[in-house]
Design goal:
This protein is an alpha/beta fold and 304 residues long. The chain is built from 10 helices and 15 strands.
């Protein structure tokens, strides 16, 4: 077997450096506690994409700390997906002929090492890149907590529906902060989806501070050359509704002052039903699909 070199960005998607989705500015920003460091270093939305005539393939990973104990990878070969569990090695026997292969790395765990090999003599080429990039900047829901496989996360689903390349800088536990949005916009993209507010509610961030931060986010989005969408938080079964609405109202009020971004009402597209949540806060697999399906209906028409 011959190893595929993964020391450059050639085969990676959704990265700043090989396997890492975060810029130095974002890694420094999310360096305030160990839990946040782990979530920031998790490979959410990161893919390996290539074209090969190989008939045998072997893929394995070595895990570091988990944000959630979900150790699945999605392997798509010519459009047919297989979800594998654990570090591997995972071995595949494939039909002859050229194949498009996409590996979606485990999205809620730090990955210390990736190994990818094909049979001797096989040709491996970089896959064509998608023309447009979708940026995700938000909290745990946009990061993909807590679906059971990376391909079931809202970002992965939405990017596939829109035919775009995903670059996801979302971090579980994150509050509304313009610094994260600014560093994400610096990565370059055609569409950005921003989603904060639930953690501000949990942490009871002072209203005026939340308003100040939200206003700065809208100012940044007003200067974005692409299409910007900001999601008012979806329903949450774990917080007082009046408290939740007070933070949602601040987002709505600041949007009226600076309406360049499209405001997306989470409660209008995501049902407040217990069976769509893992824990009352995070969507499950079905919930992630509903989130992505309805967000696509809002975003796709705006791109035409």
């Amino acid at each position: 077997m011959q190893k595929i070199a993964l020391d450059s960005l050639a085969f990676f998607r959704g990265c700043v450096t090989p396997g890492c989705r975060m810029s130095e500015a974002l890694l420094n920003f999310y360096n305030d506690c160990e839990a946040r460091v782990v979530r920031a270093k998790a490979a959410s939305g990161v893919q390996i994409a290539f074209v090969t005539d190989a008939v045998e393939m072997e893929y394995s990973v070595a895990f570091g700390a988990p944000a959630r104990r979900i150790y699945t990878s999605d392997i798509t070969i010519n459009g047919e997906n297989t979800t594998v569990e654990g570090e591997g090695p995972h071995k595949f026997t494939m039909a002859p002929g050229e194949k498009n292969i996409v590996i979606q790395l485990p999205h809620l765990v730090v990955i210390n090492e990736i190994s990818l090999a094909v049979n001797d003599g096989a040709v491996v080429k970089e896959a064509p890149r998608r023309a447009k990039k979708l940026l995700f900047c938000g909290d745990s829901i946009l990061q993909g907590m807590t679906c059971t496989a990376p391909g079931k996360a809202v970002g992965a689903l939405l990017a596939e529906k829109l035919g775009m390349e995903l670059h996801n800088t979302s971090v579980g536990g994150a509050e509304m902060r313009f610094e994260a949005v600014e560093a994400t916009l610096a990565l370059g993209g055609d569409v950005i989806v921003v989603g904060f507010g639930i953690n501000d509610t949990f942490h009871k961030v002072p209203y005026e501070l939340f308003r100040e931060r939200t206003a700065k986010v809208f100012q940044l989005l007003a200067g974005f050359a692409g299409k910007a969408f900001i999601v008012v938080p979806i329903p949450n079964m774990k917080v007082d509704n009046a408290l939740y609405e007070s933070y949602c109202n601040i987002i709505r009020e600041e949007h009226k002052k600076n309406p360049a971004a499209v405001l997306v009402e989470g409660s209008s597209f995501y049902p407040a039903r217990d069976e769509l949540f893992v824990d009352g806060t995070h969507p499950n697999d079905e919930g992630m699909k509903i989130y992505a399906d309805n967000l696509e209906k809002i975003i796709a028409p705006a791109l035409n």
